[in-house]
Automatic annotation (TrEMBL):
<protein>
    <submittedName>
        <fullName>Uncharacterized protein</fullName>
    </submittedName>
</protein>
């Protein structure tokens, strides 16, 4: 039961972020005035999703590259000052 709750929460979270970021949009169209039918359309903007994914990927690579540089700066003096026999 908890698995379904987590999956539902993830679905709501992705849907909310998707609408906020413009990945999804909804529109409705009522046919004729005599008809009681309403057409509801969900549009998915895959180009926007891919652009956002690429931006996140670039930012992660930038941050991990900076972290690697910092680690290398910390490790380099430790290896240079090791006691020699």
């Amino acid at each position: 039961m908890k698995v379904f709750a987590v999956l539902f929460l993830l679905l709501v979270l992705v849907g909310g972020i998707g609408f906020y970021r413009g990945w999804f949009s909804m529109s409705s169209d009522q046919g004729s005035s005599e008809s009681r039918n309403v057409d509801v359309n969900l549009t998915v903007d895959r180009d926007k999703m891919e652009a956002d994914a690429d931006a996140v990927k670039d930012k992660v690579e930038e941050l991990t590259g900076d972290a690697k540089d910092e680690v290398n700066k910390l490790v380099q003096p430790a290896t240079d000052s090791s006691p020699s026999e």
